[in-house]
Amino acid sequence: MEKVVIIGTGCAGLTAAVYTARASLSPLVLTGTLPGGLLTTTSTVENFPGFPEGVDGFELMQRMQQQAEKFGARVKFATVEAVDLSKAPFTLTVDGEAVATQTLIIATGASHRHLGLDSEARLEKKGVTYCATCDGALPVFRNQPLVVVGGGDSACEEALYLTRFASAVYLVHRRDQLRASKIMAERTLANPKIKPVWDSVVTDILDVTQEKVTAVRLKNVKTNAESELACAGVFIAVGHVPNTQLFQGVLDLDETGYVVPKRGTATNVPGVFVAGDCSDRVYRQAVTAAGMGCAAAIDAERYLAHLHQ
Ligand code: NAP
Q1: If we measure between CA atoms, which residue out of 284, 239, 267 comes closest to residue 149?
Q2: pLDDT tens digits for 193-250?
Q3: For ligand 1, what atom is nearest to the CA of residue 150?
Q4: Any atom of ligand 1 within 6 Å of the Cβ of 199
């Protein structure tokens, strides 16, 4: 019987692991298919406090894991296939085997929604990115025309952020009206460096043969006119998909699938806690995920202490 199982090894999961391990709870930490989480897919992280010269995302996550293991966390490369949270202790099916646990911390993160283009996948990290704050300042994007895809708050935020580095930012949106909040939309459209490209979708990203981004192919959805737009980078901000499919019908989720905490990090199932991007549709930063992981660990620790009073 485990005291604490943590699902996910991004910033939230590994911070929860550090805290529960230091509390002598010997957490079992299950990685899922992307050990280290989304941060491992980016390059230099420049906004994690304590690293004035920046830190490689992969290295940051490795160091968090080492820190958790130093205090007794057991990190296992494993995928959770099913959960039974109907009664305590909870039962997880992990790579075909049953694992029983008194508490569960869900830190399964979220995935960037993709456009689904073959060229998008092949040029990822070669000019195609899903995070302006992570990658926007890279030398390859400086003083170059850049494309942002999407019309929501994220796309506006990405576009505004990129105006610091780019020569011009083309905001490609499939409609002629932004979905973003009024204030963000107004700020975005008022920025002289941002040029909206309305009613348009990206049909291809060039140039796979050169292994770098040189342009996007666009199609106007109203006129069907096709065109090419030269750029050095494509920032895709068409929303996120929380990794919560396992918990549908079990935990309270909002209409887009994010776990809705009841109080602090507690979910509607006592003993089950949540942290990080799978329950955060607003901030989605490494440091906020880490903070939520810390809070979930403290909540789980207190729940166990109360259970054994
Ligand atoms: P979002 O609001 O769901 O917007 C996604 C955008 O991508 C929409 O404009 C959508 O177009 C477009 N899109 C979706 N699938 C597409 C596809 N396959 N091809 C082309 N375009 C596609 O997502 P978000 O911007 O990530 O925001 C998520 C939540 O976080 C929102 O509630 C937002 O308010 C919040 N947020 C807030 C802030 C802030 O307050 N500063 C910042 C970031 C996020 P349509 O409009 O046509 O559907």
Answers
A1: 239
A2: 999 999 999 999 999 999 999 999 999 999 999 999 999 999 999 988 999 999 999 9
A3: 7
A4: no
